[in-house]
Every structure is written in C-alpha cells, then in structure tokens.
C-alpha cells in the first residue's frame, strides 16, 4: 500500500481521537450523556474556514441582505450591516481562527449547559441530539453564513506552502519520536498496573526497552503483512481468510512476548500469569498489537515527511496538537478539579453535600469538551478540503461513542486506542468483507454496522469497562 494511504488513514484516526477526547471528558469523567457532540465540531470547522477564506467574512453582511431583502427596509439594521462590511477584515490568521472556533464551540456548550445540565441524563441526551440537528439545519439553510449545501472549498490550509529543508524535516521527525516515546512510556505504566489493579510496581527501564523492541517488531510484521500474497489460486473469500490468518500468525507471537515482558515486571510473574483472568491477557495482547499498528503508522509518517506533502505536514501538526491537549487533559483529570468531576460522575449528591458547586463543574466540563471538539473540527475541514452540512451528521457522534466505550470511558489513553481500533475495523471490513461475502455496497454497509454493534455487545458482556477502563468506574445505566 502507498504511504499516502497510511497518512490519510492516520489523519482520520487522530482527528476522531481528538474529537472523542472531548466526549470522554464530558461523559467518561463527568457522566454527562451528550449525543450532540458533532455540533461542536461543526461550529469549529465552519468558524475556522469562514474566518480564513479570503473575503468571506467581509462579504457576509451583503450576502445576508441578498438572502433576506426585507432587511433593507430596516434602515438602522441595514446601515449597521453596511458598516460591518466596511470594517470586517478580509481574513484572519489560521491560528487565531482555530482559537475563535474553539471559543465559539465552548460558548455553544455554555448555552446548552445553562439550559439543560439540570436535566436528568436521558432528557439531556435528547436535548443535545436536537441541538446538533438545529446546528446542521442552520448550516443547510443560512447560505449567507455557510454557503448551504454547496459547501465551502478553496480555503487556506496550514503548512500548505511549506517547503521544509533537511533541518526542518529533522526537527519534525525528532518531535514525532519524542511524542511516540512519551506515548509508549505512558502506556507501559498503564500495562504494568493491570495485573495488580491499582498497585504500582517499579517500572523497569530495561524491560521497557525490551518491550519497545517487541512493539517495533510487531510494527514491522504489520508492515510486511500488508504486502503478503498467495502463490496458489484460491476462491476470493478463502484467500482473504488465509491472508488474515497469516498476518495474525506473523504479529501475535511477538505481541505475546511483549505481554510476557509486562508480567516480568511483577513479583512472582509466573503466578501472576496463572491467576489473572483471560480477559486481562487478551486486553494486554490487544493493546500490544494495536500499539504495533500505531508505531507502523508513525514510521509511515516519518517516510512521508522525508518526501514532504501537505497531508504529512497536517498530520504532524495534528499529532503535536493532540499531544499537547492529551498532556493538559491528564493534568486536569488528576488535579483536584478532575477529582471533583469524578465524584460528580459517581454520585453528585455526595459532591453537593461536600459543598461543591456541581452545576458549575458540569458546565466547565461541557464547555472544555466542546472546545476540544471544535479544534478537531478545524482539522476535519482541512483534511477534507471541502465541507458541507452532510459532513456533520449525528452518525459521527455515535462513532465517537463507540471509540470511547471500546477504549474505556474515563481513560484518555483508552480513547486514543479506541480510535485506532475503530479505524482498523473500518478499513479491514471495507477492503476484505467484499471478498468474503458476495453482497452489494448497500448491504455490505449495513452488515458492517451490524457487526460492530455485535462486537460492542460481546465487549460489554466480556469486558464492560472497555479495553483500558476500570470496571468500578462504570456510570452509564447506573
């Protein structure tokens, strides 16, 4: 497969990961059921593009008058619109536009929160999905604001005109290596705590280095597995199944070695291996295999930076953005503020009894989650290079829910892992399922949705807390 394909897939994966981090803050840490999360992404995307498209905001008052000619009869209003047309700038720098988009998404969270956060969970979910549809319908009908169904295109893109020299490329690659190392270290700390719950065994640097070598081996196996071909002729469905088995046969042995290194950190590792539940073994194995896949994408991205393109630059910028936001979220959720959010999720009456302003904390969480989704919306628009209202349907919200639930609610690393698993499933079924089942595209699409629903049901029965979640912190349906 081409490097460009891996870069595009990595872009969508990281955009959905960033989008889902906002939802994880709202639901995973605070217990707020938000089924209208896509509204925040739409606000961020449209705001960023409108403010950076040359002449768009300056011509906006005139387009409003053209769509609603009756405004000319209101002299004071018409005069105000003409004045705005003279003073508004041609465009705003991209960085400032992203911040404004995130701010407006947070203000939408403030508006929704002040009117709905006192409702019970089921009513809150109904209101939020309604608000998301209102935002989408505004984007469809208010053409002066969003160009309606025609959409927006030909807008400026970040790093589009960058022509990096060798030194700049080296700096970009070095920053990616640092981010990957920090991710692996954070994941290693989580892995060695799983067999013993909340106890914290000493994180051996030697074993961590060996684990990195195992994951690098898994990544290499993933890379070469995609170029596997069979020299014998078989029916297409049988050939697909055989290739999938061969790929797993290449990857799983090294992943098992990585799991054994996790247990080697613990006292009495063989005893720990025997007493742990099967779900723990499978969870550690799955995480190691997925981390190998993520490391493979990092390698593909490094090769793409060497042969620089706009999407390689955009992915680099997105990875740095998500790294900063992830780091800040980890600080938030482990601070006293984050512990209050957790107490609200567990039992808000107890938090109230301790003198905490529950409504204010909920509102802050809702606004911050919305702002993060707004930033994700900016990257979503840049990746697509064209946006219209059909790109912001409620389905995207429920895909984010799948990511958070599968990865483990209340765990930011789990959200990133869930995004990788979700997009891996999407791409595998998109390419391999047509070779196994002779169905048309419509039926295959419906089957893919059914299969992921079935997988979620099995996951909820086998490991209801998600892959990296804690069972004692489950809140939905309590």
Distance between the termini: 45 Å
Strand content: under 5%
Radius of gyration: 24 Å
- The chain-level mean pLDDT equals 86
Number of strands: 2
What order do the helices and strands follow? HHHHHHHEHHHHHHHHEHHH
Largest sheet: 2 strands, antiparallel
Binned, the helix content reads over 70%
DSSP helical segment count: 18
Oligomer state of the chains in this structure? single chain
Strand order of the largest sheet: 1-2
Poorly predicted regions are none
**What would you call the structural class?**
mainly alpha
Shape: globular
Please describe what this structure looks like.
The chain is mostly helical and 478 residues long. The chain has a domain of 144 residues. The chain contains 18 helices and 2 strands. The protein has a two-stranded antiparallel sheet. Helix 2 packs parallel to helix 6 and helix 10 packs across helix 12. The protein is globular and about 80 Å long. The two termini are 45 Å apart. The model has no long low-confidence stretch (mean pLDDT 86).
Short description:
This protein has 478 residues and is an all-alpha fold.
Defining key terms:
478 residues, mainly alpha, 18 helices
Topology of this protein?
Layout: H1 3-28, H2 38-52, H3 56-67, H4 75-87, H5 94-116, H6 121-141, H7 143-146, E1 152-153, H8 166-191, H9 205-225, H10 236-264, H11 269-275, H12 278-306, H13 310-334, H14 336-353, H15 358-384, E2 386-387, H16 395-407, H17 412-436, H18 441-462
Antiparallel strand pairs: 1-2
